[in-house]
Design goal:
Number of helices: 14
Radius of gyration: 18 Å
Number of domains: 2
Low-confidence stretches: none
CATH topology of the largest domain: TIM Barrel
CATH class of the largest domain: Alpha Beta
Strand content: 5-15%
Strand order of the largest sheet: 1-9-8-6-5-4-3-2
Mean pLDDT: 95
Number of strands: 11
Distance between the termini: 27 Å
Helix content: 40-55%
CATH superfamily of the largest domain: Aldolase class I
Order of helices and strands: HEHEHEHEHEHEEHEHEHHEEHHHH
């Protein structure tokens, strides 16, 4: 399949791996890129020297394109951007901030830029900022979400109407059928987080992967809306947040409960009771931990099979 996304990033399939904190290390990234997608290192959970190490290890493990996801609110972002340039990374996905801040700098270094959004309003701002593509992420996604709480099904056609930029759909996408649906709605490709977070190559802890594979519908919830809306698994930590929010706790109290390195404690270190266990709604569909190449092969096969089956459908 050749389209705007495969051409822009020079990849075989229009499948982007989400740059997820504590999950997106060099093993996952190189596996996705080697399988024909685009792997993204999750710089949001990496100190600058760790990012440099993961970039270098990714280069040793794949000769295919890969990129780095950079949350624009990262405290040492100047140093991260310098490393990205010094290490000759050619693709950057930015999120959680104003795309105008770094797009020109990156373009001046011949780096392709995509920005993550949650509304058609921000899609227009991305176009004004000159980014090369947008990722429209729906409410179903794991981790940090937009405040609009718009589902992917509703978001994609509205963003498509708002911009002509190459459009990547994200949030609740884990199968070939979901990928086909997103493209039917106007997307040019998909970004997949949860399915890859639960792959064999993900750097998440085995405890985290295993508990995610036992989830049912409704076992994740969006909370922390007074700080930054975050989807996570219900556990002891979530229950404390829910209780505080129910009695009207303010942002400062919620930050105190959250503390520091809470997502690392859960996702990376495997504390299933007191960790912040960020994962998407679609986790309830994932029941086994398998290698990335098998995941991508399954997605592509299902996409093609379904596309063939529905090609003759008429009303």
């Amino acid at each position: 399949m050749e389209n705007k996304i495969t051409t822009l990033f020079k990849i075989k399939y229009p499948i982007i791996q989400g740059g997820m904190v504590w999950c997106s290390g060099w093993r996952l990234v190189s596996a996705v890129s080697n399988a024909g997608g685009l792997g993204l290192l999750g710089a949001g959970s990496m100190y600058p020297d760790v990012l440099r190490e993961h970039i270098q290890k990714t280069k040793q493990s794949t000769d295919k394109p890969f990129g780095v996801n950079v949350p624009l609110l990262y405290p040492d972002i100047d140093e991260l951007m310098k490393i990205i340039v010094d290490e000759n990374v050619k693709i950057v996905f930015t999120s959680a901030g104003n795309p105008k801040t770094w797009t020109k700098f990156l373009h001046d270094k011949n780096i392709t830029v995509a920005h993550v959004i949650s509304s058609s309003k921000f899609a227009k701002k991305c176009e004004d900022a000159g980014v090369d593509a947008v990722v429209a992420e729906g409410f179903e996604a794991g981790g940090h979400n937009g405040r609009e709480e718009t589902t992917t099904l509703a978001l994609i056609p509205q963003v498509r109407r708002a911009t002509s930029l190459p459009l990547i759909a994200a949030g609740g996408i884990a199968t070939g059928n979901a990928m086909l649906a997103a493209i039917t709605l106007g997307a040019d490709g998909v970004q997949i987080g949860t399915r890859f977070a639960l792959s064999a190559e993900s750097s998440a802890s085995e405890e985290f992967k295993k508990i995610c594979c036992t989830l049912n519908e409704g076992d994740t919830m969006l909370c922390l809306k007074k700080i930054s809306p975050t989807r996570m698994i219900k556990n002891n930590f979530y229950n404390r947040i829910e209780e505080a929010e129910a009695r009207g706790a303010n942002a400062d109290e919620l930050k105190e409960i959250l503390g520091r390195a809470r997502s690392k404690k859960g996702i990376f270190e495997g504390d299933m009771d007191e960790g912040e266990l960020e994962i998407g709604q679609i986790a309830s569909l994932v029941k086994e931990i398998i290698p990335v190449n098998k995941i991508i092969n399954e997605i592509v096969s299902e996409f093609n099979e379904t596309a063939n089956n529905i090609s003759a459908i008429r009303l």
